[in-house]
Write a structure and sequence with these properties.
2 copies of one chain form a homodimer.
Chain A lengths: L9 H20 L5 E5 L6 E4 L4 E4 L3 E5 L3 H23 L3 E2 H7 L11 H15 L8 E2 L6 E3 L2 E6 L5 E5 L9 E2 L9 E6 L3 E5 L2 H9 L2 H4 L2 E5 L6 H14 L3 E4 L4 H11 L9 H4 L5 E4 L2 H6 L5 E2 L2 H11 L7 H13 L1 E2 L12 H13 L5
Parallel strand pairs in A: 5-6, 12-13, 12-14, 14-15
Antiparallel strand pairs in A: 1-4, 2-3, 7-10, 7-13, 8-9, 8-11, 16-17
Chain lengths: 369, 369
């Protein structure tokens, strides 16, 4: 496993960050312009890692070199961000990426142009220091997932106390809200009495399965992904897979964006390919809605838009979808010219999904219940 | 108070819905085409109700008449929806509005054209029957609010047991997730030890106030609105205002959409003006970010877009904003040509909002802490 999975102390995080400043300083003393070397972060530079069984960045590199103005600005920002993170760690604080963007107002030439700049830099620093953004105390804006089912976690609360929460008995209808940091210093996996984990794209379907008692009938934990899953959502699934040896089953809409959600869970996301072995769960299974399902279950569907078609074409050149299964699904969807939502199963009534669809689909992969 | 606030039994709900069918049937027997009379649901037909102190629909009506095809279709749908709701109530089920849209696939000529049609019809039926959508067991897609602070609720879980949850001690960092139904049969307000309730637009700012311990320092409960607040979010604020007599303070971005969020909380939303006395909290206070704040605190801001300017102009002819305060704010924002986010306060560091901004703004309205 890479260095990322070895948890670092506060001191190690600060020292890794300071290492960047030191290296720049040393280069300047030697009369060499400071540089920072980073992998190219696009789909043209990800490849399957045979050992880790997830997609990682390949060999293509970009070099930030202080002799060009844009790169020099990025290096300056790295120094300001380092200082900011050090202050947060010392004060026991965290901040959103958006707050960091605004804080850069006082960084002179280091001020971020856009929010995207600050997000990317946080990931760059992960790559260079082999620390995690969570170690840097930087949080995303989006909410984490919700979980319902017979699994028990311990979360360290603001006061430093460990609270034990069973996601079936100790939560209301909306379930357990996953915090942004799900590493062992913040969250522990305690006990479970489930056979698998089902990750669900939409809130409506999550609520349907909860109301129908699917978690109890099928002995599973349900996770609401909330669209493109946050890092903490992907990480907690990976931990449940590693520590509890439970299969991760993904149940989403049938559209190109849902395929990407699955790819980020099972293979690794392009933006975070430097930590795929941390966030992605090899062997996660795409249950549906598949393009075949639209035909097999005669589901209400919508026409693919131009954006949808472009996204499907992009997927055909994405190494993560370079398998017989995905090529077939993508080509079938293009042929049909249709996409369908999870909730379209309601065409046959509110119980069809739990009485018919899921038992059939789960049985096909050997998960009878 | 109107009939809406008297909670109805399952039998009363079913009988109200059947009343619609009966009335149509009777008219047809008499040889008269069935009709349904509804208020015009737009800003041109809302007015301040002196007694209820919220905005309600005025006198303009539209009549659905079975002699036109579109109206006849709507009447047919009403009958199908009535039957569907009755089945759900009897089975102890609920459904999302999206599911109802898909279920209408089998309703022949009653099939909904768009999701919007099904949403609007649910509201129409509320008006005609004086029941609530929650009585009909229809749920929205969006998640409810999150709450953190020293307030205690009891929520009835799926098994019918009442669970007591303190929103400071019994929840993780993400807080208590408000369910879609917050009526007394589902949720009880038990105890509180706070001086006010602060409703916050963005997740980033909610998390900031939580991390800074603002709920404890300022003795308040914090609610994350998640943008335009769900009905359950507005309703739970109204209940906390009524039952606990606590002021509701709204802290949002400074842009035209945030002003609408506030209006829906304090005055009533246009789409739900038939139940404003149920969802809106008279006396809710808009704390900021105000247009003045952009100047007073020299906040980082963005230029207003064409859409923003159109929204501001629309607000100038919205009766809810027809006050000196709002006219001044809206005109000042137009004059500046700028909007600003809550998180822009981070320009002055992560503690500025809790050390300086909120104490100053709260003190100005007599809420010193």
């Amino acid at each position: 496993m890479s260095d990322f999975t070895k948890r670092k102390s506060k001191e190690e995080v600060i020292s890794s960050l300071k290492g960047i400043a030191l290296e720049m300083h040393n280069k300047m003393e030697r009369g060499t312009p400071p540089t920072m070397t980073l992998p190219v972060r696009s789909k043209t530079n990800i490849a399957f890692d045979q050992k880790l069984e997830v997609y990682k960045y390949g060999k293509k590199k970009t070099i930030r070199d202080a002799t060009s103005l844009g790169s020099a600005r990025q290096l300056l920002r790295s120094l300001y961000v380092t200082e900011f993170i050090e202050q947060m760690i010392e004060a026991g604080k965290s901040s959103t990426l958006r707050e960091m963007y605004y804080i850069s107002e006082s960084w002179g030439h280091g001020k971020f142009g856009t929010q995207n700049d600050s997000n990317n830099l946080a990931e760059d620093l992960e790559i260079v220091t082999k620390c995690l953004r969570e170690d840097f105390k930087l949080r995303p804006e989006e909410d984490g997932a919700r979980i319902i089912g017979d699994v028990t976690f311990e979360e360290k609360n603001r006061k430093g106390d460990w609270m034990r929460i069973n996601c079936r008995d100790d939560v209301g209808d909306s379930g357990y809200g996953v915090p942004y940091n799900v590493e062992s210093e913040k969250l522990k996996l305690i006990t479970e009495d489930v056979d698998f984990i089902m990750a669900i794209e939409t809130g409506g379907m999550f609520d349907r399965l909860v109301e129908n008692g699917f978690d109890e009938d099928a002995r599973c934990a349900l996770i609401h992904l909330k669209g493109q899953p946050a890092r903490s959502t992907r990480r907690i699934m990976r931990r449940m897979s590693d520590e509890w040896k439970k299969p991760i089953i993904v149940f989403s809409d049938c559209d190109p964006w849902s395929f990407r959600i699955f790819a980020s869970i099972a293979y690794g996301a392009i933006k975070t390919a430097h930590i795929s072995e941390y966030l992605a769960t090899k062997g996660a299974h795409y249950l549906g809605i598949t393009a075949d399902d639209i035909l097999a279950y005669d589901l209400p569907s919508d026409d693919l838009t131009k954006q949808d078609l472009n996204a499907l074409d992009a997927e055909l050149t994405d190494p993560r979808f370079n398998s017989g299964y995905w090529k077939e699904q993508i080509n079938l969807m293009k042929e049909l010219g249709k996409k369908a939502e999870q909730q379209s199963l309601a065409k046959y009534g509110l119980d069809f999904v739990t009485d018919t669809y899921l038992p059939e689909k789960l049985s096909a992969i050997g998960l009878d219940y």
